[in-house]
Design a protein that fits this description.
With 486 residues, the protein is an alpha/beta fold. It has helices at 2-16, 23-37, 45-58, 61-64, 70-93, 100-128, 130-156, 169-187, 191-207, 263-274, 290-293, 296-302, 321-329, 386-396, 419-425, 445-452, 461-464, and strands at residues 96-97, 161-162, 215-219, 228-231, 238-241, 279-280, 282-285, 304-305, 307-310, 333-336, 342-345, 348-354, 368-373, 376-380, 405-407, 429-432, 458-460, 466-472, 475-481. The protein contains 17 helices and 19 strands.
Length: 486
């Protein structure tokens, strides 16, 4: 609002001083003034979007004059603005609303000429006479609630969100150039060429995240918790193991935040959307601990899940109830899985090695996943501790010898990664999923020393950030990133 007012005020002042100034010059002066006053403002999303949208309207006079019908002109205004800013929206938010192109034809005039004036009038009336205001609010409030319900309903409609992920910078630049070329073709009324130059970059943006020919295992930095994302080549399947979460302790009311931090919604969901992941084939909950499952419901609300796997006996735990209720609401299959479950997709095979029993007793009943692709073998152990590791050694001794990758059990607690287990696996890389400076001091020094004494490299998500392991053919590589979204 301040930026828009500054442009209008500048033009009015110039005219008062009998100086002629064009709207684009006023916009440029306003832009420079804001940047000079506060250079950091250029990184604000609102600043970028507002000036880009304004530029689109300033230089689209020819397009906006293509029709004198107010409804079509309203659509053209929305169309021009959103088309120019869509690459920037994808860069920041990884998705855009397709329905907004049509919805804004109704909602922009409605809010500008009806809702806003009504709210201002109501505010003035509350100052003059509260009884009169209460009578008016009694009639206005149901309409406001109905409108909110309708907006939420439109938001939930299928296929109205395009979520291709975060494009590479070069692709964003190509998309912006294609939009400018598209505007030119509209002005000269070559609509076929417009469609071609707009849709080719959009199709590339949509398809590129699915064209990689490698398996990716990403261990997210979710603080003191676990979350692993497995992507198979060409996006044949996506599996997510655990969701991260917070251990929430009772505290005084004044210390409780009105908007508590949500790992699932604020870390995992942006990562998945940034990758262009719109569907999870299997969501695996290794066991019923808050730091593994507390964020699961938030992910399910944002990302489609086809199937959920739980360790047997964990369904009746209180921490699981939010996820199970949301799964029931969305009609997602929930299955208990244990030792013996196997499947294969392409060259990659998966096997649940643990648990053996249907009675849930905690960490040692975590689902343990064994993954193999060619010579690459990985073991993901949830919060498995000493007893579980001993049983794993007894059951799968030869199968686990000389492992390629280990996701260490229980965040590197001293009750896990026992000497015989480490000696048998001797993994080429061990990953500890643990928060920076966590209260439990995970990974424990003794555990880290067990690996170091054997010259076995380790990395920790809380220290090193998100860790991505890429497997292609007989080779594999590790990429460590401080930023969650590539």
């Amino acid at each position: 609002m301040l930026r828009a007012v500054s442009v209008v005020e500048l033009i009015m002042l110039m005219r008062y001083a009998r100086w002629q100034i064009s709207i684009d010059d006023a916009l440029a002066i306003s832009f420079l003034c804001f940047v000079l006053l506060e250079p950091g403002v250029i990184y604000q999303i609102g600043f970028q979007l507002s000036y880009l949208a304004t530029v689109s309207l300033v230089y689209s006079g020819v397009i906006l004059r293509l029709s004198t019908n107010w409804l079509i002109r309203s659509f053209l205004i929305t169309f021009v603005c959103q088309l120019l800013v869509y690459p920037l929206l994808l860069h920041h938010f990884y998705e855009i609303s397709i329905s907004s192109f049509l919805a804004n034809i109704i909602f922009v005039p409605l809010f500008s000429f009806v809702i806003l004036p009504l709210n201002i009038a109501m505010f003035v009336i509350t100052i003059i006479s509260m009884p009169v205001a209460k009578v008016l609010f009694a009639g206005y409030e149901p309409l406001r609630i109905w409108l909110t319900t309708f907006i939420l309903y439109v938001q939930e409609l299928p296929f109205q969100l395009w979520s291709p992920g975060k494009p590479a910078i070069w692709l964003i630049c190509v998309a912006l150039i294609s939009v400018l070329a598209g505007f030119y073709f509209i002005e000269i009324k070559h609509y076929g060429k417009f469609a071609v130059v707009i849709f080719i970059p959009a199709i590339c943006i949509h398809l590129l995240p699915m064209l990689f020919n490698e398996t990716k295992l990403t261990f997210l930095n979710v603080g003191q918790g676990d979350c692993t994302v497995i992507e198979l080549p060409f996006r044949r399947a996506v599996y997510v193991i655990d969701s991260g979460g917070l251990l929430r302790f009772e505290q005084e009311l004044w210390k409780t935040s009105e908007s508590p931090y949500e790992v699932g919604r604020q870390v995992v969901v942006p990562f998945l959307k940034g990758k262009g992941i719109r569907d999870i084939d299997i969501f695996i909950v290794t066991h019923a601990d808050a730091d593994h499952v507390e964020g699961a419901e938030e992910i399910l609300q944002e990302i489609n899940m086809h199937e959920i796997h739980l360790t047997p006996g964990s369904m009746d735990k209180p921490i699981m109830q939010d996820l199970l209720m949301e799964a029931k609401k969305q009609m997602v299959q929930v299955k208990e899985k244990m030792h013996g479950t196997t499947w294969r997709i392409g060259e990659t095979s998966f096997q649940y090695l643990w648990p053996l029993e249907t009675v849930y007793e905690g960490n040692n009943d975590s689902i343990v996943l064994y993954l193999q692709q060619g010579a690459f073998r990985a073991l993901l152990t949830g919060d498995l501790e000493e007893h579980g590791e001993q049983e794993i050694i007894r059951l799968y001794n030869k199968q686990l010898a000389e492992m390629t990758l280990l996701k260490a059990g229980h965040h590197g607690s001293k009750t896990s990664s026992i000497e015989p287990f480490v000696e048998l696996l001797r993994p080429e890389l061990t990953i500890f999923s643990a928060g920076l400076n966590n209260r439990y001091r995970h990974p424990h020094d003794e555990v880290v020393e067990r690996f170091a004494s054997r010259n076995l490299p380790t990395v920790t998500t809380g220290i090193d950030g998100t860790i991505e392991v890429r497997i292609r053919g007989e080779t594999w590589s590790v990429q460590i990133e401080k930023d969650l979204v590539q």
